[in-house]
């Protein structure tokens, strides 16, 4: 979710748009983050202690589709990761991702844990060890509860990074990216019926279409569109539709999902793909509003801190403050806190962590390099009785030269 720039020209190994910042990507991030926030605050019952439909009869019906912001985030992630990894080695790629993800995440884990320890109204923290494990961002693979339920998406992102790192190791080229998208598509289609836990774990069939589509859209922007890339993106859109109903059930519950129309979810995904296609083709390159960059930088810390802490605040003050002012106040507080996390923690700590990791990568490469081979000096031939000993080649050459 970092700020991104585009350089070059389509069809010439570059990206259209000159040095223009991709402000449209920040706009997509903002809309996706607000959608997720509205879903948590307006459509979930846990913060209000009663059905959200009785608190917000109209707004909750639309906010029930806000979880689709996660799917849109994944498309953006595929686009941005492919773009940011270009011309980098795997060491630089890992350093960039770690320094980008962890500083704000560490702050969010500690903040949310502190809120849940203080007011365990919506949910508490079962063990201090859960907080410690959550700092690794690997709790999803260890079956340790997330401190904040929104963190499940980060483990999905980490798996995508691990898979894409294989392409970086192999060499990030146009061809290798297309091969990667093809292989991952096949794995995602086969995984649900292959009865292989490992394949399903890494293929991420529910969300892989969004990452792959994002990669295809970036390749369009960098090299220009063609039938292969349109085919990849179009196939991902089709495959994504098969998981929409299951995602509605997991987010809304089987009962509410049965009475909620599914067509708006399909429409949101279609709009997300169309907007990303427009960004790939340069249709939004004229959008250069500076405030989008500043607001887009807040989406990641806002996503990390808003859910469980925000629901706890809503639950704690729900009898003292009316619903609409309460939601607006909690949202404003979370945006302000996200700005503080970005300015005081994410930027300075991320810069230092990135510098330290790059230095470590350089040291590993330097100390792992093989020393230059030392040419062997030919030994003198063994002496033969009655024959003068022959000197090494340079010495013999000098003797002959001096004899002339």
From TrEMBL:
Record GO cellular component, one term: membrane
Cross-referenced InterPro entries: Acyl_transf_3_dom (IPR002656), Acyltransferase_3 (IPR050879)
Source organism, top-level taxon: Bacteria
Domain Acyltransferase: 23-342
Membrane-traversing stretches: 21-42, 62-86, 98-119, 150-169, 176-194, 200-220, 227-244, 264-284, 291-314, 326-345
GO biological process: lipopolysaccharide biosynthetic process
Keywords, in A-Z order: Acyltransferase, Membrane, Transferase, Transmembrane, Transmembrane helix
GO molecular-function terms, A-Z: acyltransferase activity, transferring groups other than amino-acyl groups
Protein name (Swiss-Prot/TrEMBL): Acyltransferase
Native species: Streptomyces roseus
